[in-house]
Structure formats: C-alpha cells, structure tokens
Model the fold of this input.
Amino acid sequence: MAIATESPPTDATGQYAIETNSLSVYYNEFQAVRDVNLSIETRRITAIIGPSGCGKSTVLRAFNRMNDLVPGSSTQGEVFFAGQNIYEPDVDPVEVRRRIGMVFQKANPFPKSIYDNVAWGARINGFRGDMDQLVEDSLRNAALWEEVKDKLDQSGLSLSGGQQQRLCIARAIAVRPDIILMDEPASALDPIATLRIEELMRDLAQQYTIIIVTHNMQQAARVSDFTAFFSLAEDGSRAGMLMEYGLTQKMFTNPEHKITEEYITGRFG
Done:
C-alpha cells in the first residue's frame, strides 16, 4: 500500500505529523524503548533529548522504519503518518523513507559530484521534471547554492564538513519529503558550521516538520519549538522511556518533573 499524499501529513486523528501509540522497539531480547506515546506537531521543530543509551536515536529511526535495517530489531505498537500506521504489513518502507527523510550524525555524501549527490535520490524515485532546477532549488533551500554553483561537477567529498552536511540536507530535500529527521546533525561540526545548520533548520521548518536528536541542551533550547525528554526506566530494565514532552520554553524554564530539571541543568546524564 502506498502512503497517502495529502499535505500536510496527519496522523489517524488528523492533527499531527507523526503520532505514536505504545511504541516499543527491541534489539533481539533487549527492549530499547518502551511504550512511547508521542504526538509530533506539523511544521515545527521537535528536539529529542536525554542521556546516552536512553533510546533517542532508536525512536527517531522508528519514525521512518530505519530500524528495520538493523538485524534482530523488532517494533511493537503503532506509528501514524499521513493517516496510516507505517508498520502495517502492506506499507512500503521505501516509500515511507522517501516521505520521511533522514540526515545522520556524520555527513555521508556519496563519492559523486555535488550535482549527482543531490540528483541521485530524485533519479531513483523516477523524477521526470527539470533536474537542473531541482538541484538548484534543493541547494538553495539548504543554503549551499551560492557556495557551490560554480563547481557542481566537483566531488561532494571536496567540501568542508559543514558544507557536506548541508549537501546531505539538500539531498534529503530533493526527494520532496514531508518530514526531515536529524540525528545529531551538528555534533561533528565547529561552532560556526553548527550555527549555519541551526539557522537552516529554522528556515526549513517553514516547509517541513523537523525532528532532531541532540545532546546539546543549548541547541535544543535555541532551535526547537517542542522538546521530548527521554530517560532510562528505573526498574533495572534499562529501557528508554518518554519522561516529559511539551513546549521547549516551558520545559527549559519550568519542567514538570524533577528528573527533567536535573538533566537540563546538568546534574545527571
């Protein structure tokens, strides 16, 4: 079954970009995250924060079925996107990943030209329009066009780290997703390049729903509209659990739970 094409995408209730219902993810016998119920606002930036090992990236990858590619992984519960549970057996995970793109922690441009890096995904998805215009538009939207417009035939690997990450964002944009997932997209970058990525995220949020995993509390406070705080269950299982979710400004100034305050203020994690 193909994913519905209404825009903006909604969950089963018609309110959110993504909504999870009792989402749990296992790696073989180990439960990585437990019973996550989370509603992601459309065309806003949501940050996922929490200590190492609490399942942040696992939850992020569950939003576009990237965990399916991990041997031994299994998923329970529901993830609604565009009115459908993406884990229904007749939903095509490749189509899900086209509609819900991903940018990884380490920039991973292909060993191809800058032009072909951007055009690659569109080509394999059967794009039949003006490829030159698509490449330019994608690079412009990724705030990279002015820096590379005279060297599109050069290797994407020749760019700086920050430029490579923006190239990967342009590549994700080129397949025209509805949602962009970002897993620590600036953690390997210097402060100036990090600022460029953060400014870009704010610009992109006018068109896309963005969900970012970050360990950087200042970054979460600067760029996100909503924040989801995860931590480990206290029953010894070490399963990640959603502890608090809400407006970023409120969470960082008046969190509901003591554990949230302790993590945000650096007292643990």
The CA atoms of residues 229 and 260 lie 7 Å apart. Residues 18-264 form a domain with the Rossmann fold fold (CATH 3.40.50.300).
